Amino acid sequence: MFNQEFMFRSKNNEKDFTRNRKLPFISLILFMLNLVKDTLQKELTNFMILLSSSDNSSKKISKSAFSQSRLKLKPEAFIEMNDLLVHEFYADDELKTWGGFRLLSIDGSTCQLPYSSELRNHYGQAEGNSGKTFPIARVSTFYDLLNEIIVDSQIATYKTAELDLAIKHLDKSKENDLVILDRGYPAIWLFFLLSLQGTNYVARLQKNFIKEADEFWDLEEESKIIEIKECPYSSKERLDKLNINFKLLKLRLVKVILDNGEMEVLATSLLDEEKYPTLIFKELYFMRWGIETNYNHLKNQIEVENFTGLSKITIEQDFFANMFIANLQSIIIKDAKEELQKESKGNKYEYKINRNLSLSYMKDRIIKLFMSNDPHYYDKMVQLFKIEPVPIRDGRKFNRKASVRKKKYFINKRRAF
After folding, report:
1. Strand, coil or helix: 201
2. Which helix (H) or strand (E) holds 142?
3. Which residue from 155, 168, 307, 331 has the least number of CB within 10 angstroms?
């Protein structure tokens, strides 16, 4: 944020952020990272008081001034900040892996947008239960399941296919990554592209995927390696657009029996049946549930759909700023959890950090984290994150019960701010 070259790359016009304003470049970024969820004017007033350390009327700023200032800032500023944060995080040698792999998942969702003709025209619209239409965007994340880091995120028009966003994510993949994919993603062209990159995969198949896989459903075998010699026409079209020539593809089919007795078939690049026996795949595949949990955190706690503007640039600014906040929180949680595990050694339960509560501690303190001259301020945030940890009770299951009326508010699920 304090780097002049970064500021130059992040502004829309060469003359932007050159005059002395109440909300200069660094202050603007800090404000947008400060979990802006309240009324905009209240947030701006409190922010200026926090920066000046005094309730001074000369430090007040209007919503209009903020709106004009943010139009000078490229959303890519937050993407670059997040890329740097992720890069530095993976420089740590003490990261969680599965069998030596960085365990990742790709999944998409939708993001409801504020009512605006500009947003409706750009992103598209969907119809709600009431019959009314509203602007909506397609979003996708590339998520590290074990380290709880968003490696990459994308926001696009509602009609954009999730597979198209998946291709963009793969720019951030590394050799020996293992990507877990739900049944909306399997495609021969994608499997071949992953194999070219040296990226492994486990993917849940739908029936009528390819002939060899369909036949496997009825066989007694639990694991089988097949060879795809000819690329299906639809996959060939995709590869042609990417200027890639298809060659022989080997993949392994594995059967998984769910708790309810139903059978699923997975496709994987992990061909070694001795090193990766069939029994491991049920637990491995269901580790992708972490990306669903992360979407819940993004939507219900970080409130990624709680936007502060009505234009495309403001939507992208808010979206990518929230991705940075989510990753920063995960990094602090990682350090807090390591301390907590040492302190609770020998206890009946292992404990995890309360994500909802820890997020509330970031409000305002995220400003001090970047602006403070205290080298121990980060450690103080780690100590705050350790307050009210949650016990991990493995193996708990709850039967779904039909309810007459769904409560809107729950005493034990109040938002922390």
Report:
1. strand
2. strand 133-144
3. 168
